[in-house]
């Protein structure tokens, strides 16, 4: 009798484990395949104070950023229709909050109390934003997004050099690329020196890397060069995506905007818009 009960108990536990495993598989598969788009509906900007002095401006700026990175269409930022919408961005806001980045630092004067800068994070209502995009002839860019891989030669005040993940002189450039990636909602990965060597890239000519774009990465090769005659930086870019070649450029801007243009162009190409410009 005891043996029979023991066998029944083991069988019952085994059946429960099978049922639990089946339930986990049934619930895990759709969750794993579902894409979390919530991050594309929010943005953070720096404003002065946490009252109404700059809140409307903060709402307007974050709305523009959300529309661009959600759709992949960078032209929306300067679209007159979006500028008009941004004046009433508060009607699209689900929630917002402020963070004082120097809260732990002791205040020494009035500058730290009245004119203190805050990080304003705004979360927009997804349904309302999707409708706004539809009204603008756009839609959310869903699915996996490729990582931008910049293969970049820098020419200017210093001898020409390749931007790599390790090169100490490229710390500001890597920071500018990271900021652009956050703004546009797309990843950026600066290649290592070993990768650049394997791709046959040198600082003496326009980069022609042997690395290929793929669904997981879009390789953008180019140069940024300071021109005293402008004055300003000139960025020249090339990318190949889905069998098509794209070239674009920007001139007379600061360095951050020059490399930002590389990421912006890649965003438009990968999101299926007409081209980098």
Walk me through the structure.
The protein has 277 residues and is of the alpha+beta class. It folds into two domains: 38-135; 147-270. The chain is 37% helix and 23% strand. It has helices at 2-33, 55-71, 80-86, 126-135, 171-184, 193-198, 255-270, and strands spanning 42-48, 93-99, 117-124, 147-155, 161-162, 217-227, 232-241, 244-253. A five-stranded mixed beta sheet has the order 5-4-6-7-8, with helices on one face. Strand 4 (147-155) and strand 5 form a beta hairpin. Helix 2 crosses helix 3 and helix 5 (171-184) crosses helix 7 (255-270). The radius of gyration is 25 Å and the shape is globular.
Short description:
The protein is of the alpha+beta class and 277 residues long. The chain has helices at 2-33, 55-71, 80-86, 126-135, 171-184, 193-198, 255-270; strands at 42-48, 93-99, 117-124, 147-155, 161-162, 217-227, 232-241, 244-253.
| Total of domains | 2
Count of DSSP-assigned helices: 7
Distance separating the two termini: 81 Å
Element order, helices and strands? Answer: HEHHEEHEEHHEEEH
Largest sheet composition: 5 strands, mixed
What would the average pLDDT be, to the nearest integer? 86
Shape from CA axes? globular
- How much of the sequence lies in strands comes to 15-25%
C-alpha Rg, in Å?
A: 25 Å
Multimerization status: single chain
Helix content: 25-40%
Alpha-beta classification: alpha+beta
């Amino acid at each position: 009798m005891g043996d029979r009960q023991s066998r029944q108990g083991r069988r019952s536990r085994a059946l429960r484990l099978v049922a639990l495993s089946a339930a986990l598989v049934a619930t895990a598969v759709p969750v794993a395949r579902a894409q979390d788009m919530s991050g594309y509906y929010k943005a953070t900007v720096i404003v002065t104070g946490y009252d109404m002095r700059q809140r409307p401006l903060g709402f307007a700026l974050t709305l523009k950023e959300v529309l661009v990175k959600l759709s992949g269409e960078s032209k929306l930022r300067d679209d007159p229709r979006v500028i008009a919408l941004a004046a009433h961005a508060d009607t699209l806001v689900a929630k917002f909050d402020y963070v004082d980045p120097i809260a732990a630092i002791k205040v020494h004067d009035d500058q730290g109390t009245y004119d203190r800068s805050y990080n304003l994070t705004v979360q927009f209502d997804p349904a309302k934003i999707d409708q706004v995009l539809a009204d603008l002839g756009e839609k959310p860019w869903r699915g996996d997004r490729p990582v931008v891989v910049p293969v970049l030669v820098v020419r200017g005040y210093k001898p020409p050099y390749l931007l790599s993940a390790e090169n100490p002189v490229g710390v500001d450039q890597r920071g500018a690329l990271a900021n652009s990636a956050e703004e546009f909602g797309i990843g950026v990965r600066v290649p290592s020196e070993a990768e650049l060597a394997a791709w046959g890239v040198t600082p003496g000519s326009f980069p022609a890397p042997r690395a290929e774009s793929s669904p997981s990465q879009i390789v953008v090769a180019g140069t940024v060069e300071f021109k005293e005659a402008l004055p300003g930086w000139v960025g020249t870019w090339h990318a190949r995506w889905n069998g098509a070649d794209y070239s674009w450029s920007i001139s007379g801007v600061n360095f951050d905007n020059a490399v930002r243009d590389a990421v912006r162009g890649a965003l438009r190409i990968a999101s299926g818009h007409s081209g980098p410009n």
